[in-house]
Amino acid sequence: MHAMQYEITLPADYDMTVVRDRVARVGHLLDAWDGLGFKAYLMRERGVDGSPVNQYAPFYLWNTTQGMNSFLWGGAFQGLVNDFGRPVVQHWTGLAHEEGDAAGSAPVAAVRSRRPVAEGTDLSEVMAEAVRETTRLASLHGVVSAAAAVDPRHWEIVHFSLWAAGASPRTAGEVFQVLHLSRPERESLPRGRQW
Questions:
Q1: N or C: lower Cβ tally within 10 Å for the chain?
Q2: Residue 10: CB partners within 8 Å, gap ≥ 6?
Q3: Total-model pTM
Q4: Which residues contact 72 (CB under 8 A, 6 or more apart)?
Q5: What is the dihedral of CA 156, 114, 135, 108, to 10 degrees?
């Protein structure tokens, strides 16, 4: 499992209906993408849920590197590059994934938290704690799914959770609106610890 995200930060006065309209127009194109567990089409609006910025920031969990590479190099990603410029694509190796009690529901919110892995820490313990945190997040009411992943180049752990309508996210991090969820192979995403 691989996690991937890019962030397109937009001007403070940007009309975010442009992003909503774009997702409404093209979001379905990944609904049957081979190798994709899910893609959450995420947006933050300046002043909403504490966001300091307007941002379009899709988050992906991939089942296969072939699916991810096909998306990035096979032409689909080029449409975004043509519209917004080429963003930095962040990616992390999967540590854990769990379904919540709202699995199968359409999520309306997502929370992402990132933290560095401190120098000198026991890596096996840090990664085991990330797995435990994923399990804890998935046990909260209204969670669609929760995942953790690590970037060993920059030594950063990311936690990501999707929340169903009516559930107030109960974890710290950046809150995003979910505009659409493509989930062609969500049920094939491996559960639990990834090693």
A1: C
A2: 16, 19, 53, 54, 55, 56
A3: 0.95
A4: 89
A5: -140
